[in-house]
Design goal:
Number of helices: 16
Number of domains: 2
Shape: elongated
Strand content: 15-25%
Radius of gyration: 25 Å
Mean pLDDT: 91
Number of strands: 14
Largest sheet: 7 strands, mixed
CATH class of the largest domain: Alpha Beta
Order of helices and strands: HHEHEHEEHEHHEHEEHEHEHEHEHEHHEH
Helix content: 25-40%
Amino acid sequence: MFPTPSFDESGKLYQQTRIAHWDHVAQKRDSWSGMGRWYHKRLNEIYKFLVSPNRRILEIGCGTGDLLASLQPSHGVGIDFSSEMIARAKQSHPNLEFHQLDAHDLSALAGEFDIILLSDTINDLWDVQRALEQIRKFCAPHTRIILNFYSHLWQLPLTIAQSFNLAAPLLNQNWLTPEDVNNLLRLAGFESIRAANEILWPLPLGGFANRYLVRLWPFRDLALSNFIIARPAPQPAENPSVSVVVAARNEEGNIKSIFERLPQMGSKTELIFVEGHSRDKTYETIEKEIALHPRTPSLLFRQPGIGKADAIRLGFEKASGDILMILDADLTVPPEDLPRFYEAIAAGKGEFINGVRLVYPMEKEAMRTLNFIGNKFFSMAFSWLLGQPIKDTLCGTKVLWRKDYEEIAANRSYFGDFDPFGDFDLIFGAAKLNLKIVDLPIRYRERTYGTTNISRWKHGMLLFRMIAFAARRIKFV
């Protein structure tokens, strides 16, 4: 007999009834598939986008283990309270680990996981908060919880499908709203990152509806499945070290100020310059200032390629700090603001801290009017694309953990290598990893030396190309 949680009589009857029900469904599926195969096929596609291969994955309510197996985990564990489901899962997927356990009591299970899935599971639980609290012990700070659950709008269509034996029979469901689930996650010690509506047409020929129409109003409100991605409530990091990377091209007049104004953060603050084929004496000035500031750990490299993205990638590759920061050499974002970024990421308020220039009034010549309007448009477009608020995409100051950057770099081929700025490369990569992105407003200052390296029209057209490309790779999948 597998371990069962303590319930009152109503709870025990509820669980016993459901165990018997899902045992029967497992036996029925041996000779019957119904119309649900298209729904589950689309679920698999969505989860494959959200979860990279070779992760440690725990699935709560795994059924026959097909979803878990499709994600190619490095270590996959599935639990279900139905003995019939578990028996079939073990037979179909002998390379994975399956246990007959109740989601309300996982005391017999151990280990940490990168991903924890609850696919169409919370609809059927007696106590959702209690089940969510059970999975907390299997979480590391980087763990992501992914849930999908039916929309209440589909209660009648699903009931009709079941009455005609076209869908697996269901007992009374919880029919939770996304707001209900977000609240239960908070109570259980988790924080939602983003949400999505998925699967508009769970039948044949649903490709266009499920990839495109479901992303658009009003169709998205009619979707069958609600998805929520969450993370464990953050815990502050203990005095992490910092690497500040500065891409410097024709910035001779700003170098001295960077050394003088850069605050010390964490256990160590490292300053890394990547000089990019300057026409002035930027490289020589950096060498001089490094010699004049021996107490500031500093590195200097000549950029082998072109573009800011190329320079930042070299700087990040050479960095040794736990936290990576970008500081623009034009000092339009003051170095004195960097401790605010440090505090936000070290306290766990976000995993990718994005500077925002568009909240506070700017100094007179800090940004031209057309640039301001363009940034507003791109911020709205990217917020829609990523499912997280991104108010300013091109502010140079961005901060993230080095371990997360290394994973972004390892998966860069997914989006392609055509971003000369590096901003979108990082933002898209962070979104693909389901990192918590947080905007941090700053006062944007007027440049006091040199001229901008950005071409308004040429690079503006490139941004449109990147939006279109990212829409195919992030939104319409």
